[in-house]
Amino acid sequence: MGRDGGGGVAGGMSDSVLRKVLLSYFYVAVWIFLSFSVIVYNKYILDPKMYNWPFPISLTMVHMGFCSSLAVALVRVLRVVDLPTSPSMTPQFYTSSVVPIGALYAMSLWFSNSAYIYLSVSFIQMLKALMPVAVYSIGVLFKKETFRSSSMLNMLSISFGVAIAAYGEARFDVRGVALQLAAVAFEATRLVLIQILLTSKGISLNPITSLYYVAPCCFCFLLVPWAFVELPRLRAVGTFQPDFFVFGTNSLCAFALNLAVFLLVGKTSALTMNVAGVVKDWLLIAFSWSVIRDTVTPINLFGYGIAFLGVGYYNHVKLQALKAKEAQKKATQADEEAGSLLQERDGHSDRKSDNQA
Fold it and tell me: Does pLDDT of 63 surpass 70?
């Protein structure tokens, strides 16, 4: 009977672990699908050979306006999530910490969406492999990362792989490459500033509260370039009638992607999202080649393969660092518990000695 009971417990534990694993894979699949959909959808809208609406600032503003409205509804009306209270989001704190992040996010989205007009989806994904390089370099610059020769060598290998991929690109466009590299630089700076301006001060924002604070700010920043760059062109077109189904579903996908990020990071980890991002990039490259009929050369794949190995090693190092940190945390907790037990035992012994005396 004892063995049967133990087997039942073990079976229950196995079922629980299996359920968690399956849920993790489900969250990853949802995030990959939505991220994949937003990228392909944006490409479809902006590419002159497809939907032919080459107004990336306007598209980004539509996304930010839509996300702002839904975020306000979720936070203020439905109260799905709570706003941070310690420390509170005062106007001064918002101006000094959130506004710079909103400005960088606006620039990143503007430039990354603009790149879809000039470059193929596959080549853009290859250029995005430079994100760890940018994050590490800017982190070292702001003293949030420690400079290590091994890490820098890995960053150089990623850069070398991307350079080879760029050399083999059949549809290379200098303007598009410059826009995408600028987008990577702005996004990397934003990620580092989030650590400096928010995380270090105890502010933790999930994607819904992030959109609640950042999306309106981002929308306002985009108004300035929009008024000078795209508004005159939109007035010149004049006859364009926006398709509410296309732009509505596109904006809904963008908002759903932010919710999927919240779900994925909350239920797994940010590192899981990074690894899933590598899988998504390969899927996008395959889709771009097989469905959109973008040209992917052997040199492209060889160069991206080198960059892929570098990014994989980067994620491996991050995982090992997280494991070491978690092990150290558990060891510290065990030492503290042992110390507390020892103090209690000594106190009990002292009281017993006093009673005997």
Answer: yes
